[in-house]
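A quick aside before the break. I want you to see a complete sequence-to-structure record at least once, exactly as it would be stored in a machine-readable document. Don't worry about memorizing anything.
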Amino acid sequence: MKTKAVIENGFKKTGIGLIPEDWKTVKLGDVAEISSGGSAPQGDNYFNGKNPFIRVQHIDREGDKVIKWDLITDDAVKKYKLKIYPKGTIVFPKSGASIYLEKRAMLPIDAYIVSHLCAVISNDKNVNQKFLFYELRNIELSKDKTDGYPTLNLSEVKNVKVIIPYLLEQQKIAFVLSKIQQSIEQQDKIIQITKELKKSLMNKLFTEGLHGEEQKESEISLIPKTWNIKRLGEIATLQRGKDLPKYEFKEGNIPVIGSNGCIGYHNKAIKQGPGVITGRSGSIGKITYIEGSYWPHNTALYVKDFHDNEPLFVYYLLHRLDFNKYKTGVSVPTLNRNFIHAALLPVPPKKEQVEIANVLFSIDKKLTQVESRKQTLQALFRTMLNQLMTGKVRVKDLDFEVKENV
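That is the input. The structure line, written in tokens, reads:
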């Protein structure tokens, strides 16, 4: 016996689900102009101009924005008969595997776009362009597409059903979601600035030290007078990890560390922390620091002996290496332990190692906090996007000023 779906008070049933009674559904093509871009110019002579030309790869999926563009000449625009799209146009991939990424963006400037991008511009005064962007952000256009070379035909896009509240509520929804995205972008800026600070500081600390010492010549560069140049094998002995087939992964609390960080958990440990592990195959050169016990996997090299050096300092010191110099193999590159043991590196006294490690660790701690805030905001955005676009959370009666430029 089939049971009837319960319709919540104040909602009505539509072909795309339950929506508030005062909302309506329409075809996207009824409220917006749908089109696609033009052919990409071919040949160096059509570039280094002044006209922005945007391709699929210029859209950042995580940030829902265009992050860069090519610059083409006036001759390219004329030869390829390209159409200019205004700032604020909604764009997303319409052909190729990239449609599965469900990228969405609004043009940050007037620009020309490639034919693989679909363009959407509201042509209804009662449909807010920014709201329409978030509406499309909440719809999976590729869900019914098969593998191969999938395509979104413009006719399909025009027939997509969208939900339309009253204009003021659209504006309020777009305003709330925009404010969350602005907060995410602010965290991104802090992360970028902090990473640049760390990179600059690492370079200074590993060449000048912390105490403004007089410097001396060495085999690799100028270093503080009390420092020495040593081979990596004298600082830390690397050992290949032990294989652990996936079927042997067990429920436990001992992390299994592979070339790309933690790949599972086990109930046994090979090594007691603190430990430093780097990718041997796969993600070669990815470095992981771990405090407690762990199982180093066959895809990684771990520090078997720190030779009385500070483990956290060794972790940061390894970031100074260009791991590409120490790879062997062509089809399946691997990190050669003997080669990397011969690498020359600057080493301060133990006390200064600890001081340098603590300075860099404090920056990493700050990065972790900011990245955590960003992840929290991203989760909030995903939740609010769904809740606001389905009417489960209403903002129509909230009293706040909506700024159109947000």
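Two observations worth writing down. Residues 26-164 form a domain with the Adenine-n6-DNA-methyltransferase TaqI; Chain A, domain 2 fold (CATH 3.90.220.20). Confidence is low (pLDDT under 50) at residues 1-5. We'll return to this after the break.
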